[in-house]
Design brief:
Blueprint (H helix, E strand, L loop, with lengths): L6 E18 L5 E21 L4 E3 L12 H13 L4 E7 L10 H16 L6 H9 L5 H6 L3 E4 L4 E4 L6 E6 L6 H5 L13 H5 L8 H7 L1 H10 L6 E2 L6 E5 L2 H8 L7 E8 L3 H7 L1
Parallel strand pairs: 3-4
Antiparallel strand pairs: 1-2, 2-4, 2-5, 2-10, 5-6, 7-9, 7-10, 8-9
Length: 282
């Protein structure tokens, strides 16, 4: 396969800088308050337009069949919605760990929707793409809109927020956390008081999932404990990744050098605009 024929686009990671569970809908979905921060580290997705209408994933993703892959599902969804007669070959360069709460699958789906909307000339609006994305997952709309945001509802009610420049050290423990398992735990807090953006900016950064995740997944608790020796650690989403913020890259990389080999780790810069936005207008 000649990958030079593919046009590659970024699908960035995100962190949840805080996560409060403030209620529950009648359909069982939890109502949240959260803050989404984009990072300057991404999966890369290559697209090659086909004229025969077929949508083909050209490389394997361990543990994920093509029919279950959010990238393939997003492409088929847009094709059906827009009525496009075109197809696409898709090649994923996976750099973000799966099942870590960094939004990799949701981000991949959003990049697919946005890029194919351009390449197929489907002319869907951002609102239409966000609505399509929501049918794939609650985190997809924030990646479609491409701005660091204050999120409410199930995460789809978004208000862009300008976050101060920070660097992050992210640790990924050697376990995968089941989001469904965490949200079904009877001990999960589901009635946190609502707060305002000003409260978050003043330092209200709790994650209501943390205690349940640490109880069910000791490797996450151990990662929190280790990182706590150097900074104030937090959990992103339901994990498994934990992170700490730093004012500059040098400080983050000094701690990165000490990370035990049991963890996958990386340093990334927080950004307020998804790199996909810049590439789409260039």
């Amino acid at each position: 396969m000649d990958v030079s024929l593919f046009d590659y686009w970024p699908a960035p990671a995100k962190l949840n800088l805080m996560l409060r569970i403030v209620g529950r809908r009648v359909d069982g979905y939890h109502l949240l308050q959260t803050v989404f921060q984009f990072l300057d580290i991404s999966d890369m997705i290559g697209f090659r337009i086909r004229q025969d209408g077929r949508i083909c994933r050209v490389n394997e993703l361990p543990g994920v069949t093509a029919n279950d892959d959010l990238i393939v599902r997003a492409a088929k969804l847009l094709q059906q919605y827009s009525g496009s007669a075109l197809g696409v070959d898709i090649h994923l360069k996976k750099q973000l760990p799966m099942g870590a709460g960094l939004g990799g699958g949701s981000s991949d789906a959003a990049t697919t929707l946005k890029v194919l909307n351009k390449l197929w000339e489907s002319r869907c609006s951002t609102d239409q793409l966000a609505d399509l994305g929501l049918t794939l997952g609650a985190d997809v709309p924030v990646f479609v809109r491409g701005r660091s945001s204050w999120g409410e509802g199930i995460g789809e009610i978004l208000q862009p927020i300008e976050l101060p420049p920070r660097w992050y050290l992210v640790l990924v423990p050697p376990c995968h956390v089941s989001t469904a398992e965490i949200f079904s735990d009877p001990e999960l807090t589901r009635d946190s008081p609502r707060i305002r953006i000003a409260d978050f900016l003043a330092g209200s950064v709790q994650n209501d999932c943390l205690s349940v995740v640490c109880r069910r997944y000791p490797p996450v608790q151990e990662a929190m404990r280790w990182l706590g020796h150097y900074s104030s650690p937090r959990l992103t989403g339901t994990g498994a990744a934990v992170f700490a913020s730093f004012e500059d890259e040098v400080s983050a990389r000094q701690v990165y050098k000490e990370v035990p080999g049991v963890y996958r780790a990386f340093v990334a810069r927080g950004v307020n605009c998804s790199p996909v936005e810049d590439d789409l207008v260039s």
